[in-house]
Amino acid sequence: MRRLALFTALALLALSVGPVVPARALECPQSEVINKRDGTSEVICSGQSHQSSPKVAGAGGSAPGRPRVAVPDMVGVLGLGNDPATGLCYRPSGQTIPTAEFNAHANSAYRVWNDVLQRELSRCPAAVAAPTPQEVAIGVVETFPFPAPKPYIAPGRAITGLRAFLEPRSPTTISDTRPTPLGDIRLDATGVYYVNWGDSRTGPHPGPGGPWPDGNISHVYTDRGVYDVEVTVVWTVRWQLGGDSGTLNVTTEGALPGFPVEQLQAVRNR
Q: What pTM was computed for the model?
């Protein structure tokens, strides 16, 4: 149905219009443009006789040899385009024609053509500007699979008054290269740990953590209970793309829920 309507409009255009008179056909060999006080303009033709010059309705009173010809208003003509998502679409063609005052048949037919396109098709999407290097970098960093910590405290519980050693079990340095529409982007990331032990917070810790006795991320609980331990890695990502570079930040998180802390009690055996 859509194609039939378009073909019908094309046939009407071909049969009804005939040759379209361009604006330059109305120009005079020797002319002078006069700007009037009401904001309109007139072209004074001095190189033609009155009989051979075009006449305009309502322009009576012109002296022989100096007929007055109003500057024509122009009507924009729509054209066909192609949208990869929806197929045919319409857009301004860049072509214009004089208004009905100068070419009534052409004006009427082109208006039908414009109406059919606007009714049957969607407007072609505007051209999308190329992304900037920073916009590309943000998109890459947002989708990059930065590793999340998987915290563990051996041997699976802690004792009050004794130091508990955290093992984040995730790296804190990453280097990678990814393709982009603007070329390859280089990522160099460094992370630091922040720990919520359930009763207090510590950080930043440069890592890497580790088990007793050499781990560098530890904590002493004073009260027994069950604690939710949360570990956050804050990444500082330096990117390089072509001649541009910058720094972005991103976080990843991991948890050790329900971590038990026990208390030892001395028992006297008589």
A: 0.55
